[in-house]
Amino acid sequence: MRMVRTALSLASIGIATSVVAAPTIDIVSASARDAQQQCHRLMHHDADEYEECIATLIRAAGQSRAKRLGISYFGWIGAMNSARVGLPGAQAAADRFLPIFRREQKSLGIADAALCTTVPGDCNVRLAQITQAEAARR
């Protein structure tokens, strides 16, 4: 029953999803939260340590694409937030995690709007940042 409620609540805000996708989104969200708890504090001391913490969690996630997506997505978000305030090395960290989370996202077929809901924050701003970051990579 929980999966049905999750799918219906996403649909009510205009996010197309299926009942099958609800557990995947939950895994992505939980993995992003875990990455935040384990790694985010490191960014304020050393961007290289932050990158390595996120990379270690991605490796530890093994074959779980949903876990790798949540971890790498938070890796990008955390680095982007730190880059915004000018922390050294943060932009390079964000640039490292963008293609990783985009690859995992594409393989799982998760829309940008659905992925954005897995980490609290302003989705309009975040989606614009993704667009801008991808344009800069071209």
Task: Give a brief description.
The protein is mostly helical and 138 residues long. It is built from seven helices and no strands.
- The count of helical stretches stands at 7
Average pLDDT confidence is: 87
Ends: how far apart?
44 Å
**Number of E-type strands:** 0
Number of domains: 1
- N-to-C SSE string, H for helix and E for strand: HHHHHHH
| Share of residues in strands | under 5%
Residue windows where pLDDT falls under 50 for at least 5 positions: 1-20
Report on the biggest sheet.
Answer: none
What integer value in Å does the Rg equal? Answer: 15 Å
Overall 3D form:
globular
Q: Which structural class matches the secondary elements? A: mainly alpha
**Helix content estimate:** over 70%
Helix-strand blueprint:
Layout: H1 2-12, H2 21-43, H3 47-60, H4 65-84, H5 90-108, H6 112-116, H7 123-137
Kindly describe this structure.
The chain is mostly helical. The chain has one domain. The chain is built from seven helices and no strands. The protein has helices spanning 2-12, 21-43, 47-60, 65-84, 90-108, 112-116, 123-137. Helix 2 (21-43) crosses helix 4, helix 3 packs antiparallel against helix 4 (65-84) and helix 4 packs antiparallel against helix 5 (90-108). 38% of the residues are buried.
